[in-house]
Predict the 3D structure of the following.
Amino acid sequence: MTDASHSGGVDAPPAAGTDPASGTGADVREVDDQRGALDPADPGRDVDTRVPAGEDPAARCPYCDRPFRTGRLRDLHVGQVHAEGCSEAEREAYEEADEAELDDLFFYHIKVVVLIGLLFSAFVLGYTVVLSG
Ligand SMILES: [Zn+2]
């Protein structure tokens, strides 16, 4: 009894991708996702860079000659922007740099959490002292 009302009595074929409304929604979402991401198809979209006089960049991209302060930043750039044409060694360097970046981000989050905890404790202690005195 309840089964018929649930299914409607009709086996409708899946309409994924055929509904124009849902297709538009997916397209909009895709555009939103690409806004902040690096576009491997367009390496020329990189911003103009200028190295100050008397300063030597630690590394340069072998594909687009963009200067970088560290080799790790170069490895990340090559792996993200030039992922199609990069060599196996560059791919491994990118994965190592990505891993190190995630570790740094994790420790940054730990520091922020500890700092917030210390600030909260200081406020509680301060209010306790003020209200008790
Ligand atoms: Zn490059």
The pocket of zinc ion is lined by residues 43, 61, 63-64, 66, 77, 81-82 (CB under 6 Å). The chain has one domain: 37-132. Residues 1-38 have pLDDT under 50 and may be disordered.
